[in-house]
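Two folds, back to back.
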Amino acid sequence: MRMARHKPLARYVVCVGNRGYRASLIVRRIYRCLPDATAEDRRMIRIIDESGEDYLYPEPLFVPIELPGAVEKALAAIG
């Protein structure tokens, strides 16, 4: 039986690579991610990208980050 991966759920990630996705992702930019268990099983992450829509991207292109509460609240208010 395969054990499920248990990663902490990050609300935000920073892009550390955009190979193959240069039009959609900007390196060093903070992106909001959405929970998607099926995507995580495939080593993908659901990101709201530059288009304003959510798409799946390879997990290794991002690093989860924790933001101070005030910053997270301000980003959430933007959309």
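---
second:
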Amino acid sequence: MAFCSLINDGGWGDFEIRYIRDKQKRETDFLLTDRDRPLILIETKSQYRGEDRSLRHFAKQIKAPLSIQVVKEEGIFVKHSDMCWSVSVNRFANLLL
């Protein structure tokens, strides 16, 4: 939320963080949007067990430019497709700095 506030207050965008869930109970934890356009889908997991099906489904459905599965487990850095990755939380945090 602080990141979105910083971007919005600076006049660089109109960012929002959303949650997605459909009738089949598939869900993705976070969707970052700018002016109602999807930017990044983020799913969080405690352990890496391959690419998350719901994340893949929503990335295709809403045509998100980037989707990231962030896992608590260390040492994870896996590219699933051009714009879909699984990364450890410490690596993800380094991307934000």
